[in-house]
Amino acid sequence: MARMRAEGVIELDYSCNGERIRLVRESEPTEALASVAPAPVVDEGTPSNDMPLPTQIEIRAQMAGQFYTCPGPGEAPFVTVNDEVTEGAPLYILEVMKMLNRMEAEFPCRIVAVLCENGTAVEIGTPLFRVERIDHAEG
What we know:
The chain is 4% helix and 39% strand. By secondary structure, the protein is mainly β.
């Protein structure tokens, strides 16, 4: 999906040996991995300094399939709570129609929570991770 987004492709229809795969990407801001929707934030008063509060974002499943936290059985997970990841770093695998899709971070972030267990069947939009963006100050 990230490649489709980067190339501006909205729909991909592929057939081979009697099997057909059709991928349809929703228009921008409601996409799934970029279907990252801000988590509800409860305002508990005004912060004492000018530092903005960290924005937590949920990363959601782009497609229905099996969610895997690690590259293979018995291997370490791609990420754990409190890990800081760079843009393009692998986060999880989503198995869809016997195809393993390695999903990557679309921005630098810190993992706040892993919301789904390894091997869980997920639907489109299922929350998988809660993260905080890491926006490095320029200057």
